[in-house]
Amino acid sequence: MPKFDLSDAKGVIPALVTPFDKDEKFDEGRMRNCVDFLINRGVGALYTTGSTGETFLMSPDERAYVVEVVVDQVKGRIPVIAHVGAIGTRLSVDLAQRAQAAGVDAISSVPPFYWPFTADQVANYYTDVTKSTDLPMVVYNIPLAGVLGFDQIKKLAAIPGVGGIKYTAATVFDYLRIKEEIGPDFRVFSGSDELAMAGLGFGADAIIGSFYNLIPEVFIAIFDAIANNDVARAKELQATANAIIFFSLNYSATAVIKRGMAWQGADAGYCRRPFDNFFTEDDENTLKSEFRKLKLDRNLKGVKFLEALGNG
Q1: Catalytic residue status for 212
Q2: Is the dihedral of CA 159, 165, 170, 173 positive or negative?
Q3: Is 166 a catalytic residue?
């Protein structure tokens, strides 16, 4: 039985990275260290084997094992949501059942992608995957897998066991409609890092994102500022976060996140190809220098990974 309800997944929820070594093998030791690092920084839950976790570059057995390691290391301290999405229903069902056996508290899935599946086929997919376990399902709305329209979201929300949505799109105004038309107990997780402030302002219950691995303290402060109706402070913090996000997008963002975590004592390893990495000492030193310059140019304060770099 899961330890937590979906309503317990609160605050800032990193879409957890998956550490690989230089040979692209899953690094269990690094994974365990990253889990402890994030829990100690005060995150509210973990969302594992999603896009940031490079899930579609892993085999089903690898994905299932990553979930097992994360749950084992969390040890019931915070909720764990496992992404089980795949193109095929049978594969997602298998991953969902293995995630439940591992002890996760909820599952999540992108809609089936690549082929132009009909709205009914998408609904059938979520029905089949959700009923395969006793866990709540978090639907994942993301442009990479096909944006779900509002009417489709309402249809999926009516499926027994579907308890919320991870909403990664710019139309955050839909959060108000979701709460009004589907109901206040349907959980909305804002999934756009650069729109965290807006998502929370429009009624998101929590935020799930990639850069929460790297700068959790900034997003925790955003969450607290919105909770305290301090919009000016939230705007200032979001500007700091966005400066880091948009700078990182000039590179392989996940690789930047992993190196930045390492600079704070939580080495998150490397990415799998075809993603890029900062393998050489010169590569990494150049990245550090450019982040130091960004810190000075934008007068970025209170960012722990930048502070860990010193002044060079």
Answers
A1: no
A2: positive
A3: yes
Q: Please, which pLDDT band fits residue 33 given cuts at 50, 70 and 90?
A: very high
The residue from 47, 166, 167, 270 that is catalytic is 166
Residue in this structure with the two tokens 């599952």, named with its chain if needed: 107
Query: Which residue range forms the structural domain that includes residue 145?
Result: 6-230
pLDDT of residue 104: 98
Q: Is 240 exposed, middle or buried (0-12, 13-18, 19+ CB in 10 A)?
A: buried
Residue 140 lies in a domain: yes
Beta carbons within 8 Å of 281's beta carbon, 6+ residues apart? none
User: Considering its fold, how many domains does the chain have in total?
Assistant: 1
Catalytic residue among 47, 65, 126, 140: 140
Q: Which residues of 170-202 are buried (b: 16+ CB within 10 A; e: fewer)?
A: eebebbeebbeebeeebbbbbbbbbbbbbbbbb
For the record, the structure tokens of 47 come out as 């969302």
185-221 per-position pLDDT tens digit: 999 999 999 999 999 999 999 999 999 999 999 999 9
Whole-number pLDDT of residue 310: 84
Q: Answer whether residue 311 is part of any domain.
A: no
- pTM metric for this prediction: 0.96
